[in-house]
Design a protein that fits this description.
The protein is α/β, with parallel strands linked by helices and 113 residues long. It has one domain (3-93): Uridine Diphospho-n-acetylenolpyruvylglucosamine Reductase, domain 2. Helices cover 27% and strands 12% of the residues. Strands 1-2-4-3 form a 4-stranded mixed sheet. The mean pLDDT is 87.
Length: 113
């Protein structure tokens, strides 16, 4: 088993099935940038649900010596969120981190009035 596969299994065991995606059909939409100019490969997507999980996964990746490509929505204009074509990195998807914790008076999402 490769270091990346070991990391995927460790993440799945620690954070649950939703935190580690390995099904090729589930991974495929995330391998190409939105303009279709950059194409990559990856053996898996790691999908933390909190900043604490992100920190733990990054530490685990460093320990396993596995590269990560952070991906918010894969909408960047220069392909920076696309994994390399050789499949040498895992995607660290932040899409599960989609909850607002609070909106303050100075927030751009608060309606005036």
């Amino acid at each position: 088993m490769s270091d990346a596969q070991n990391l995927v299994e460790n993440v799945r065991n620690r954070f649950g099935d939703r935190a580690a995606i390995t099904e090729p059909s589930d991974i495929e939409p995330w391998l190409t940038d939105w303009r279709g100019r950059f194409h990559g490969q990856t053996p898996g997507i790691l999908s933390p649900a909190s900043t604490e999980e992100v920190a733990d996964i990054v530490r685990m990746a460093a320990a396993h010596r596995v590269a990560l490509v952070a991906q918010g929505g894969n909408t960047g204009m220069v392909g920076g969120a696309t994994p390399p074509p050789d499949g040498s990195a895992l995607i660290l998807s932040l899409r599960r981190m989609n909850k607002l914790r609070s909106i303050g008076a100075g927030s751009p999402w608060r309606k005036p009035g």
